[in-house]
Design a protein that fits this description.
281 residues, elongated, 12 strands, alpha+beta
Length: 281
C-alpha cells in the first residue's frame, strides 16, 4: 500500500457514516478527498523530515551542509554522501566526557566510600590529558602505630614507616597468576630418588608444595589511552594549564577492597582505566 493510498483511507475513516457522503469514484468529492490526502501526505513527510533534522543518518541530504557547519566539520566535496554522514555521526554522537563520573560518584557516596565516608573523589582526566604514571607510581608512606592510636606516636620516631605503597590501575577486573610454592627458599638442592637418599626429598630441586595466587598489576597506559583514564582518590592538585599534577591518597579498610572494585567495575565502561590512588589498612 502506498503512503498516498494510506492517507486517503485515513481521510475516508474520518468522514461521517452515510451513503450521502460516500463519494462516487472519479466524482468531484472523490477528487477533493484525493487532494486532501495528497496534502496530508506532504505534511506527514515534512513532519517526518523535521523529526530527523539533526540525525546524520536520516536527515535530508540538503540539510547536511547545515549540520556540518553546526558541528564544525569542513566541507569536503570529494567525499561521498555516505562518508559525509559517517563523519557527522562520529562527531554528533561521540562521548565528550566520561559519562559515568557522576553516576559512579553517587554510588561511592551511597556506599560510604565518598562524601560522608572515606572521601573518595572520582576525577576524569584533564584536558590536556595527564600522564597517570607519575601519579600512580608515586609512592606514599604508611606509618606504624598502635591500633586505634592516631596521635602520631609511631614506632621508633616520627620518621619510621612501616611500608611504602603506590597506586594501581583497575581496568577489567582483577587478574591473578598461579605460581608454585617452594619450601626452604634459597636452599634448594638436588637429591637422588633411586632409594639411596635417606632424606625426605622435600627440599629437592623442582619440588613444590602447591600453588599460590599473585595479583597481576596493569602497566601504565601509553599516551593514546590517557584520555580513557579517570582517578579515584582524594583531593586533586592541578597545574597552571589545568592538567592534573597530583592526587592525594585515601585510606580504606582492606576488608572493603573487593567491594570497592565490584562497585567500580559494575558502573564504568569496559576498557576505561581507573587509576586507584588508595592505600588499604
Amino acid at each position: 500500500m502506498s503512503e498516498s493510498v494510506y492517507m486517503r483511507q485515513v481521510v475516508d475513516a474520518l468522514m461521517p457514516e452515510g451513503s450521502i457522503l460516500t463519494p462516487a469514484a472519479g466524482g468531484y468529492l472523490d477528487r477533493l478527498l484525493d487532494g486532501i490526502a495528497d496534502n496530508e501526505q506532504a505534511i506527514l513527510e515534512a513532519m517526518e523530515s523535521l523529526a530527523n533534522i539533526r540525525n546524520p543518518w536520516k536527515c535530508a541530504i540538503e540539510l547536511l551542509p547545515d549540520l556540518e557547519r553546526e558541528f564544525g566539520i569542513t566541507p569536503n566535496p570529494a567525499l561521498t554522501e555516505k562518508d559525509r554522514r559517517a563523519n557527522l555521526a562520529l562527531v554528533r554522537y561521540k562521548r565528550r566526557s566520561l559519562g559515568t563520573v557522576a553516576k559512579l560518584q553517587r554510588a561511592l557516596d551511597r556506599a560510604g566510600f565518598g562524601a560522608g565516608g572515606y572521601g573518595l573523589i572520582v576525577t576524569p582526566n584533564a584536558s590536556p590529558a595527564t600522564d597517570p604514571a607519575p601519579i600512580v607510581d608515586n609512592s606514599y608512606q604508611l606509618t606504624a602505630h598502635a591500633i586505634g592510636d592516631e596521635s602520631g606516636a609511631v614506632a621508633g620516631n616520627m620518621g619510621a614507616y612501616a611500608a611504602r605503597r603506590g597506586g594501581y590501575y583497575l581496568v577489567n577486573g582483577d587478574s591473578y597468576a598461579a605460581r608454585p610454592e617452594y619450601p626452604q627458599a634459597g636452599q634448594i638442592c638436588a637429591r637422588a630418588f633411586d632409594g639411596t637418599d635417606t632424606l625426605s626429598g622435600k627440599e629437592c630441586a623442582g619440588h613444590y608444595t602447591g600453588y599460590a595466587l599473585y595479583e597481576n598489576e596493569y602497566a601504565s597506559p601509553g599516551a593514546a589511552l590517557w584520555p580513557l583514564v579517570f582517578f579515584v582518590g582524594g583531593i586533586v592538585a592541578r597545574n597552571a594549564d589545568g592538567s592534573i599534577a597530583a592526587v592525594s591518597p585515601v585510606t580504606i579498610p582492606a576488608t572493603r577492597r573487593q567491594e570497592l572494585h565490584r562497585l567500580i567495575l559494575r558502573i564504568k565502561p569496559m576498557g576505561i582505566w581507573a587509576a586507584m590512588i588508595i592505600q588499604y589498612t
